[in-house]
Amino acid sequence: MKNTPIDSRLAGQRNERLILSLLREHGELSQTQLCRMIALGSSTASSIVSRLRDKGLVIETQGQSDKRGPKPILLKINPSSRYVAGIEINPSYIHIGLFDFTAGLLIKSKLQLTASHTVDYVLDTIERQFPAIVKKLNGDQEKILGIGITLSGSVSPQGIVQLSSTLGWKQVPLKEMLELRLKNKVLIYGTRVRLMAEIAQEPELQSRNILYINVANGVGANIYMDGKLMTGSTGRCGEIGHIIYDPDGPVCGCGHNGCLESLISGPILADKIRKDIHDGAKSILSDWLVKQPSEMPEDVVDLWGKAIEQQDEYALQVRDYVAERLNHAAAAAINTFDPDTIILAGYVCRQCTGFFAESIRQAMNGLVYDSPWRDIRIMAARCGEESLIKGVAMSILQDIHPI
């Protein structure tokens, strides 16, 4: 049997990354605690810690102790040693966040897009605005460890956007194009990174089997099972938005007819509300849409949510329309993945999360196999609109080693 030599440099980087991850999770740890957690010898740990300290990535503080003798030395991450950026590309806006080395949000900016969200227009906007945001922070762009881009769609390991039905992009070499423009390391992610932000917000979720359903500009799901985020063989795991609900329905951005996304996503819902009101539907939304005109689907959907609170009959009909279609997709996903937790997210779901949760629960009786024996917690997402930029920043910290 041939022995394969150990690459000490790669092993060292792996241990450095592991120590940094533990310090982000726990805040402060002694070297003894680190040795115990990752089964390293004292001399090896000392060498790794020394390298991290020389790079300025960690700092030492004096701990407290009730025992006699020297006080313990605690290690923690130096938050200002590096920065990471998270950028969400959305059909309506570009959301940019700059984070410190502990994934703490320092500054964010939301840039509204026009009806045009072509590749060139979006990339020109990022190239123009990103350095200005870094300058606002009085930051050095060379200290940025990496930039994480997240968008709805299928992304190859090489950072090529193979298809984004919400943006209308196909075969876009986004990683390469942005690295040429921004002169920083860029990684491209799908939207499943937002689940990492939810788990960081509520660590107890790490032990759960989660179905995360997001209804916003698109419709999708993220699956977290047995401690792992599922991706699938091509990275397309969780595309419940492309379950065909009505074969005779409208054409979806993916090219098929009657996908769930073509029926209840935010832009589709906003268009339906505008059309129904124009065609004579009686609703308080009629006056509201005149007084608060907006091209942004989020604004129209938010008004719909306010009309639901007012028990407007038309708004309640639209709510039931969404719930019926969402119930079928949720039931199919429950039958497939067997979760014990469902998280409802996105600006469509947030309008009446409690109603949608109860509707899914009631529909399970007729749509889910063995439903009486399932104990599923259904909850609202906690991280709100920052979930994607936070999740992608955390991904960058995990995936790029700070040399």
Name the helix and strand elements from N-terminus to C-terminus, one letter apiece: HEHHEEEEEHEEEEHEHEEEHHHHHEHEH
Helix content: 40-55%
* Count of separate structural domains: 3
Largest sheet strand order: 6-5-4-7-11
Q: Mean of residue pLDDT?
A: 89
CATH architecture of the largest domain: 2-Layer Sandwich
Radius of gyration: 24 Å
- N-to-C terminal Cα separation, in Å? 34 Å
CATH superfamily of the largest domain: ATPase, nucleotide binding domain
Q: Can you describe what's shown?
A:
This protein has 403 residues and is an alpha/beta fold. 41% of the residues lie in helices and 20% in strands. It has 13 helices and 16 strands. It has helices at 8-26, 31-38, 42-54, 119-136, 174-182, 194-201, 261-264, 266-278, 285-291, 297-309, 313-337, 353-367, 387-399, and strands at residues 29-30, 58-62, 73-77, 83-89, 93-99, 105-112, 144-150, 154-155, 161-164, 169-172, 186-189, 210-215, 219-225, 228-229, 341-345, 377-380. A hairpin with a 3-residue loop joins strand 12 and strand 13. Helix 8 (266-278) packs across helix 10. The protein is globular. Mean pLDDT is 89; it is low at 1-6.
